[in-house]
Amino acid sequence: MSDVTELIHHYLRHNKKFPHVFCAGCGHGIVLGSLIRSIHGLGLEKDDVCIVAGIGCSGRIAAYVDFNTVHTTHGRALTFATGIKMANPKLKVIAIMGDGDAFSIGGNHLIHAARRNIGVTALVLNNYIYGMTGGQCSATTPQGANTQTTPFGQMEKSFDLVDLTRAAGANGVYRGSVFHVNMLDRLVSTAIERPGFNLVEIISPCHTQYGRKNKYKTAVDMYSWLKHTCVKREKYEAMKPEDRKDKLPIGTFAEHDTKGLEELYADLRTSLCPQPTEAVEGSGK
Ligand SMILES: Cc1ncc(C[n+]2csc(CCOP(=O)(O)OP(=O)(O)O)c2C)c(N)n1
Ligand code: SF4
To answer: Keyword annotations for this protein (predicted)?
Structure first.
């Protein structure tokens, strides 16, 4: 059995939940592979991990992997993830969300999860659109882009997920792309390993709903765009401002070692009650 087949058999609910729903060429399948390789590479046991997802094509990933999994409601993955982490801090809790899920309907939960620095890894699969429901615009749809709900071009400005999450106080902020898979594996592994709230924005193209309305008719067109648009952060910062136009930096944007909320909470409990009181035999207590 090849290494890849072994991983598939070990980590996927391959005999229950497949065939998958992703369109051929969708970036979300590449993220699924990266997630599995990262968890495997970190040597985590399946029961050490809890995957929490919202609703969307991206959210289907939770159904396919054989960890503890919770497929929650649209926009609320981080609320469930926060509760799970506070109840069982030993779990590696990973929330998987689309841009609509995380930054449109779920935007409020996202900024507060970052502010609280709760020990959750957030993987945001940004395809600039609501993929599952037919291609409505989201909070990350670029200005001028055509969508089902902006047939004359998006007029609103879009969020920069890296800037927003960094400003909200997350410990770790990263951006990767599904075209740059080795780097993506490294970023996802780092975000899982580190303390506090760590977010990876993953540019994961949807040619079906976004690309075909915006001059990228095929998946290949979208991957070619990723190849030419994404540049490593260090290289991007060394570029002249006029050369940065239409480029997207990828890599590490923030990395702090602050304790996560669940660790601060455990410290507080210890300080309030240094030695657990033992029940006195026969006292009924
Ligand atoms: C409360 C609620 N509102 C709206 C919906 C409908 N809905 C399901 S998925 C989705 C958008 C998904 O887009 P995104 O999160 O970007 O993920 P993608 O499908 O692009 O991966 C919407 C609006 C819902 N299920 N629940
Ligand atoms: S609609 Fe878009 S996001 Fe959904 S599976 Fe197809 S390509 Fe992927």
So the answer is: Oxidoreductase
